[in-house]
Structure formats: C-alpha cells, structure tokens
Amino acid sequence: MRSRPLGKTGIVVSEMALGTWGLSRDGWGLPSEGMDEKETEAVIARALDIGVNLVDTADVYGAGKMEALLGRVLEGKKDVTVVTRGGVQRATDPPTKRFTQEYLRGAVERSLKRLKRDALDVYLLHNPSPDALSVGEAASAMDTLKKEGKLRHWGVSAGDLDVARAAVDKGAEVLSMTYNLLHQSDVNRVGGDVMVSRVGLLAHSPLSYGLLAGTWTKDTEFTDGDHRQERWTRLELERRVSDVGSLRHLVRGDVETLRGAAIRFVLSSHLVSAVILGPKTEQQLTELVRETGGGPRYLPDDDLRELTQTLEKAGIHV
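The structure corresponding to this sequence follows.
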C-alpha cells in the first residue's frame, strides 16, 4: 500500500482509506436489524492487513454505533488514523445541522468516548454551509477544541466549492470532497487553494455511490431506505447510466474493471491525499484494492489527457 502526506498535518496515510458509511448500513436500504458487527470487524481487519491506516467515519453512522465499534476494534492501534465527522443532529426529524460552540463541544466529547481516544486525530465538520464557517461559530469552536487537546487536526466535509473555499479561508487542515470521473469540477477549481494552503484532501464518493462500478442498467431500482432512491429521478438515473457508457474505453490492458479505472483516476490527482473506499463486505474490499493496485500505478497518461475531451463529446460537463 503506497502512502501520501495528509497535507500539512504531519500524518502520512495510506492512499486508500476505509470508509464506514456503507458498513453501518445507514441509508443504504439494507436489512433493518442494522450493522453486521462480525462482517464489519472482518472488513476492518482485512483493511489493516492490506496496509490501510486511515479509517473514515461519522458520529451519525449507525447513530454512534460505528464509532463505538471502531473504538473497540482499534483500541491501542495508534498507528491507525481515524477521521470522524460531526455537526448533524439526528435526534430531530428531519435531521438538523448544529455548528454552535456548545453542540460541537458535546459532539466531540461523545466521539472521544466512543472511539476511546485521548484526542481525535482528525475531526471534520459534516457538510456545513459557507455561513456556518464564515460568520458562525464552527471554525472558532474547532480552534478552541484543538488548543484544549481534544482534537489534533480539524477540517470540513464540503458539499460544494463555496464551502470548500470558506473552509480553507478559516484554516481547515483537511477537506473531504466528492471527486470522481463524473464529478471533478469542485476539486479542480479549489486545487490552487489546496496547494497553496497545503490542505490534505480526502476524496469521497469515488464510485459515485456505486454508479461507476458499471453494473447498473437504466432499469436499476433501489429499495426503500436507500438514499440513492431519493438522490436521482428516473430520468436522471437513466442519463447517468448512459454517461457511464462513455467511460468504458478506460477498461483495457491492465485496467480490468470500470471501478478499478475510477479509483485509479482519483489517485492520479496530485491533490489527493487518500481516496475513501466504501466496501460493504470483505470481498468487495479485496477486489477494489486488487483492481486498483495491479498493473500500472494509475491510469495511462494518454487516457487522462483525452478524458475531458471524451466527456465533453458525450455532453458530460464535469
């Protein structure tokens, strides 16, 4: 497993990180009995065995159960960096964003207890608005908690370009942003800020919630409780499945699958510190790493140079 620096934090991380949203089963339309702890522990153990040393989670995944499981499984493993998120209150219906000093202090304390850590390695504000960062209490709350030793580094899980830029302006050390073959523009446009400020960049949704695995059809349906059921209309889903067809030329030579090509594309960016994988099983994790790690290090330079033009010809604006 190759490693990269996490921006200016001084932490060196594996370029592939284990994301735990899918493992929590929260929002994926999976069986209502909840997280399969035995399977989850097996995935985590396999990730560590492969060489992954960065685990990404959030306090809302399984209503805190994922953090608690990680706290138990990773206890004493100081060489594993845990990134967690906070700022979403699930006790309300619908959930609300809470980025006040008071709420964030309580959220950090709860995460510390569940993760069994003296200090949180990296704490990300979970999809705040630009105003929550620019004129709200969020950034000052993070700075205060860092000075108190509750967390070592802080950053933002940014839903769009404006949030990312506000985060960098306020001194965020880490950004987590969507970055994949079909969604590139926000990361590309904030790239200069990332380089100048030496912010660590975690790339989430590299497979666009499964779309870029290349197995969906225009008739694909999602079960109740799966966030993808509400994310796209039927027409939008059909268009996105059609868009994927324009990328299949990337699967050739040593690039054996579209999902392998998708992960390799993300890792081809010098801006990215780590790509967050979201396997739901040990087998999925093993296959993702094998398909990404075999053959050439990343995608061929010719494919990368031609990619934007290929997408534009297909009417895809990234």
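The two ends are 29 Å apart (CA to CA).
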